[in-house]
Specification:
Layout lengths: L4 H15 L1 E2 L9 H17 L18 H11 L2 E2 L6 H14 L2 H13 L4 E4 L15 E5 L2 E8 L10 E7 L10 E7 L5 E6 L8 E12 L3 E2 L5 H18 L4 H5 L2 H10 L6 H29 L7 H24 L15 H13 L6 H12 L21
Parallel strand pairs: 3-6
Antiparallel strand pairs: 1-2, 4-5, 5-9, 6-7, 7-10, 8-9
C-alpha cells in the first residue's frame, strides 16, 4: 500500500531529526574527507529507512514513488544541514542517466549502489579545447576486441578526487560530424592509466580536477546508450544538471546566501532600515520567488513524464544571475570586513567573501550563461541558430588550435 504524503512527510521528519543537524543550530564544520564519509553514512541510512532513491524502481534500490514524494522530502531536508554535496552530480546527473539510458545489467549492477552512496559518480565532459562547445571534444576511444581503449584529457571535473566511477564522453568515430561520432562510457576511476590531478581555485579549495586517461581499457558492457549515441546521452545529462542547479527546491544558494539570511544580517548590522539595502533585499526576494516558480513548473513537467528540456536552461541562467546578485548584496552588507578581517572578529566576513569569489562559478557550471542564452534563443524563442561554417563536416577535417 502506498503511503500518503503526510505519512511520508512525518517519516522523513523523524528520520532527519535523528540523522541530521537543523539549520537553526550551529553550522557543521566539515572537511572534505569528513563530508564524504558523512554523505556515505547518510545515504546508507536513507536507503535503510526506505527514503533512498525515492522515484527510482524498487528492483534497483529505489522506492518506486512519484516525484511529488521527492518534493516533500526536499522541503523537509532543506531545513537541515545534511551532507548532500558530494552526491550532487552522482544523484542529480549520473543516476538519472543510468536509469534512462543504462542497460538492464548496468542498472542492476550500479543503481542501488549509487542510491546507497556505496558508489559516488562524476561526469567527465569538458576538455582544454572543448568547454562551451563540448561536442568538439578530442578524447578518443578505440575498439579493441571486447573492450575500448580511452586516451585523452578531461578538465573541470567536480569531485573526481573522491569518486568511484565517472561517465565519460569520448570520440569513437572521427570521420563523423562532431555531434555524431561520440559515445558515453562508464569508467572505473581506480583503473590503471587514470590520473586525477586537483585544480587550485581562487578561494583556496580544490573542488575541480583535471583527469588524464592513458590507454585505459573499459569493457564493451560499459558503453551507455549505444555506440555513436553519446551526444544524446550527454545532452540529457546536461539538462539534468541544469535542472539540478536551477530548479532544485533546496538549492545551496537559497540556503547559504539567500534573502532570509541576508535580511537577518542587515538587521544585525543596523542596516535593516537603509532604503538602498531594503530595495536590494526586496529585489532579491522577488527573484528567489520567481526561481521557485520556475522550479515548480519544471518539476511538474517531470511528474507528467516529460524529460528535461530547454526550460532547464532558463532555470540555470536565472540561478546564476541570482547567485551573483546574492553575493553582491552580501559583500555590500559586509563592507570593508568583506575584504580583510581578524579571525577572532565576530563581524569577520569570510563567509561573504567566499560567496563573492565563488559566485562566478555558477555562470560556468552546467554551461555558461552565454550557452544558456543561445539555447533559450534557439529552442524557446525560435531565433535562428548561430552560423557554423563547419556544420556537417567530419570532425577530423575541422581545424583546431
Amino acid at each position: 500500500m502506498t503511503v500518503t504524503h503526510e505519512e511520508f512527510r512525518q517519516h522523513t521528519r523523524e528520520f532527519l531529526a535523528v540523522n541530521a543537524v537543523p539549520r537553526t543550530g550551529p553550522p557543521v564544520e566539515w572537511t572534505e574527507h569528513k563530508m564524504v564519509e558523512a554523505c556515505r553514512r547518510f545515504h546508507g541510512a536513507l536507503a535503510d529507512a526506505g527514503l533512498g532513491g525515492i522515484t527510482y524502481p524498487v528492483e534497483h534500490g529505489g522506492q518506486g514513488l512519484d516525484k511529488s514524494y521527492l518534493e516533500v522530502f526536499n522541503q523537509e531536508v532543506a531545513k537541515y544541514q545534511a551532507p548532500l554535496l558530494p552526491t550532487a552530480i552522482s544523484h542529480g546527473m549520473c543516476l538519472p542517466v543510468i536509469n534512462e539510458f543504462g542497460t538492464p545489467e548496468q542498472k542492476a549492477r550500479h543503481q542501488a549502489r549509487i542510491i546507497r552512496c556505496d558508489e559516488i559518480w562524476c561526469q567527465m565532459f569538458s576538455e582544454p579545447g572543448a568547454g562551451s562547445d563540448v561536442a568538439s571534444l578530442a578524447m578518443r576511444a578505440v575498439r579493441d576486441g571486447d573492450e575500448w581503449v580511452l586516451n585523452g584529457q578531461k578538465v573541470w571535473t567536480s569531485g573526481a578526487q573522491y569518486c568511484d566511477f565517472g561517465l565519460c564522453v569520448a570520440r569513437t568515430d572521427p570521420a563523423q560530424p562532431k555531434h555524431r561520432g561520440l559515445s558515453m562510457f562508464i569508467v572505473d576511476l581506480t583503473l590503471p592509466g587514470v590520473d586525477i590531478r586537483p585544480l587550485r581555485q581562487m578561494n583556496g579549495s580544490s573542488h575541480f580536477n583535471e583527469i588524464y586517461l592513458t590507454d585505459v581499457g573499459v569493457g564493451h558492457e560499459c558503453l551507455v546508450g549505444g555506440e555513436g549515441n553519446g551526444w544524446n546521452v550527454a545532452v540529457a545529462m546536461l539538462m539534468y544538471e541544469r535542472v539540478a542547479i536551477g530548479a532544485g527546491s533546496s538549492g545551496a544558494m537559497s540556503q547559504a546566501m539567500g534573502s532570509a539570511k541576508l535580511i537577518k544580517e542587515a538587521r544585525r548590522r543596523g542596516r535593516g532600515r537603509d532604503p538602498v539595502v531594503r530595495d536590494a533585499l526586496a529585489d532579491l526576494y522577488i527573484r528567489e520567488r520567481i526561481q521557485k516558480f520556475i522550479g515548480m513548473r519544471i518539476r511538474q513537467a517531470a511528474e507528467s513524464g516529460r524529460a528535461p528540456g530547454p526550460e532547464g536552461s532558463i532555470a540555470k541562467l536565472n540561478a546564476a544571475i541570482l547567485s551573483r546578485r546574492s553575493s553582491d548584496v552580501a559583500i555590500e552588507l559586509a563592507g570593508a570586513s568583506g575584504q580583510a578581517w581578524d579571525a577572532a572578529d565576530e563581524d569577520g566576513a569570510d563567509e561573504w567573501a567566499s560567496a563573492v569569489i565563488g559566485a562566478p562559478a555558477m555562470a560556468i557550471a552546467g554551461g555558461t550563461n552565454e550557452v544558456q542564452r543561445n539555447i533559450i534563443g534557439e529552442r524557446v524563442l525560435g531565433l535562428p541558430k548561430e552560423p557554423d561554417p563547419f556544420k556537417g563536416q567530419p570532425w577530423e577535417e575541422v581545424p583546431r588550435s
